[in-house]
Amino acid sequence: MGFDMERFVAMGGLGGGHGQHLGIAYRAHGPDWAELALPYDARLIGDPTSGVLASGPIVAMMDMATSVAVWLKRGAFAPHVTLDLRVDYLRPAVPERTVIGRGECYRITPSVAFVRGIAHDGDPDDPVAHVAGTFMGMKP
Amino acid sequence: MTIARTGIGLAMVLPPYAEWLGCSIEWVDGLPQLVMPFCDHVMGWPGLLQGGAIAGLLEVAGIAALTHRLTQEGGGRIKPVTVTTDYLRTGRDHPTRAVGTILRLGQRIANVEATAWQEDREKPIATARLNYRILRG
Hints:
The structure holds 2 protein chains of 2 kinds. Chain A is of the alpha+beta class. Chain A has a single domain (5-137), classed as Hotdog Thioesterase (Thiol Ester Dehydrase, Chain A, Roll), CATH 3.10.129. In chain A, 24% of the residues lie in helices and 39% in strands. Chain A is built from 3 helices and 8 strands; from the N terminus they run H-H-E-E-E-E-H-E-E-E-E. In chain A, strand 7 (112-120) and strand 8 (129-137) form a beta hairpin. The mean pLDDT of chain A is 90. Chain B has a single domain, classed as Hotdog Thioesterase (Thiol Ester Dehydrase, Chain A, Roll). In chain B, 20% of the residues lie in helices and 46% in strands. In chain B, the strands form 2 sheets. In chain B, strands 3-4-6-7-8-5 form a 6-stranded antiparallel sheet. A two-stranded antiparallel sheet of chain B has the order 1-2. Chain B is globular and about 45 Å long. Residues 1-10 of chain B have low confidence and may be disordered. The A-B interface holds A 15-19, 21-22, 42-49, 53-57, 59-61, 63-64, 81-89, 92 and B 1, 13, 15-21, 39-46, 50-53, 55-57, 59-60, 77, 79-87, 90.
């Protein structure tokens, strides 16, 4: 039993078209967390004067990393939807650097999962973003 | 770069990410409204919009509203501080529209609310509250 992360990644579970086009890749996981990577891509720039990545792709990665963290903690895949997700932008990601997103599920009930995470560009102690959110299970 | 012209000859340049999402601007009552067609780029589960693409569109709508207002006030730079997205309904395989409403634009901070909908504006699929740091030109 349990949630088979390798099989999930092999089946292309990391977010269909959007995740694939963004180039989001699997890095690591544990019993209640997952780590993904978003490679730098000039097409994803949000501020042309500085070359800093837009925040949308970082939200997409953190949504996926925290989603997977829920299934890892639950020990099984169960469809859910994002109820809300707050992102605090602590500093701009450095241009050309891959952004790494680590999502954690810290509390789970039969219907709601509570998640948090950080995104960083090399040093987890100097994050670029902090996220907090909730997912609702699809079962009644 | 996507350059959308207003009825009064103003131009707004959207960042590369907005173009990547497939966004374009429609001007409604002199204010920018974003349109994002459904395509593989923005799909999560088969036939459904990905939450990150929705959040991205809301953010582009917020920045478009602020850029438009700041341009009238002498320009300035916009840096995101916090974005909180509430997902209200499933996004389906339809075009998605979004507008940003400026709640307050001060000297240093702007508070913006953005709403996204598909077929019926009265049934939004997501809303976001966006707080920005403003660096006046």
